[in-house]
Write a structure and sequence with these properties.
This protein is α/β, with parallel strands linked by helices and about 230 residues long. It has one domain: Nucleoside phosphorylase domain (Rossmann fold, 3-Layer(aba) Sandwich), CATH 3.40.50. The chain has helices at about 20-30, 65-80, 115-120, 130-140, 165-170, 180-190, 215-220, 220-230; strands at about 15-20, 35-40, 45-50, 55-60, 85-95, 100-110, 125, 145-155, 175-180, 195-205, 210. It has a five-stranded mixed barrel, surrounded by five helices. Strand 2 and strand 3 (about 45-50) form a beta hairpin.
Length: about 230
Amino acid sequence: MSIHIESKNEDISNIVLMPGDPKRCEYIARKFLANARIVNNVRGMTAYTGYYKSKKITVFPSGMGCPSMGIYSYELFKDYNVSTIIRIGTMGSYTNLKLKDIVLVDNSITNSNYGRYLCNYPNININGSTDINNIIEMTSKELGMNIYRGNIYSSDVFYEQNNDFNDKVQKYNVLGVEMESFALFTNAKLLNKRASTILMVSDSFLFDDKLSSIEREQGLDNLIILALEASLKL
């Protein structure tokens, strides 16, 4: 057990899929995993472990933002000997991406001080694990899925006032915005683990379009299948 997780070590797989929403974990467990059971319910962060094609997989919610992702991914890496976390979530598009397009994140650029206060990490950008990303990209081709690979802006502020997203695109070559990948990648680098982020476009800053809450919760099947199938190769 750790401060925020009540699981036993054997409850957690060394491979974790990490949505933000606990309800999305429940959806994944019920639809995609065999013999899934609840392994954590502290603070309503309900996590499940089950089997996908005989591979033991844990789905564990991160909550929203770098602080929440930072806590749960750190404890999973440090206290439960998790080797790989794949974040599966949603993003807002800053570019011409359409709703439900899938993005594999190479680099996360942030306005957060998470890395500075965690471990004196001096940069505002950090990369995911290239080997895991290559496996995910190869898997997408095998599944006939079209995905985009690029950078993401990882913001500490959801309701950012006067957000000049075009400036961020020009400065950092980002495809859009989310709120968790920077903390995940920083924890992985600090603890010598592996991490990747796959995102589905849920809204657009260009076209003022967005998915409903139910579509966000239950509309990520292609994204989920991609992460699960890639996990079989790990």
